[in-house]
C-alpha cells in the first residue's frame, strides 16, 4: 500500500469508527465469534511479547492481560480514533500496553515499539477490513520470532450456512467495508510453505468464521 493509499484508508477507518468506537464492543460481541477462544489458546509463555494487529478499542488486549498477566502487550491500528478509545479503556482497566498508529501491512516494529520480534501475534477480524491483507500476513510472519505463532480469527466462507444467510451477511458486511477473505486458507498454506511453518486451520460455526494458527519453526 502506498503512502497515499495508507492515508486514504486511515481516513476511511477514522470516519467509520469516529462514532462507532463508543459502542463498538457492545454490538460486535454478537457476531465477532471465536475471539475469546483464540485468546484463550494463545498459550503465552511467561514474560513473552504479544502483538495485536488491528487492536481497535483494546478489548482483546485487555482480555489477553487477564489470561496472561505477565505478558508484554503491544497493539497497532491504522485508526487514530480507535487508538484513542483503546488508550482510555486500557488505562481505565490498569492494563499496560504500548500502542501505535500504523498500517499493519507495512509496519516497522523496531521503530514503533523498539522490538525486533514477538513471540505471539494475533489478528482478530481485521484482515477482512485491510485491503492489502496478504501483505499483512507476510508482515506479521516476518516479525514473528522463531518458534513463535501467528493466530488469526475472521469471517469464513459460510459454506455450510443457508445461501440466503450468506448473501445477506455479505451485503451487510460490505456496508462496513468488510469482505470475507475466501482464499485465506490457500494464502496461509502458501506462506507456510515458504517458511517451513506449520498450519492449523479450523472452520467454526458451520463456516461462519475461521481460526488459524501458524507455528514458525525454531
UniProtKB/TrEMBL annotation:
GO MF, one annotated term: methyltransferase activity
Domain of life assignment: Bacteria
Organism name: Nitratireductor indicus C115
Keywords in alphabetical order: Methyltransferase, Transferase
InterPro entries recorded: Methyltransf_25 (IPR041698), SAM-dependent_MTases_sf (IPR029063)
PANTHER family: TRANS-ACONITATE 2-METHYLTRANSFERASE-RELATED
Listed name of the protein: Type 11 methyltransferase
GO biological-process terms attached to the record: methylation
Pfam families with a match to the protein in the record: Methyltransf_25
Residue span, Methyltransferase domain: 50-148
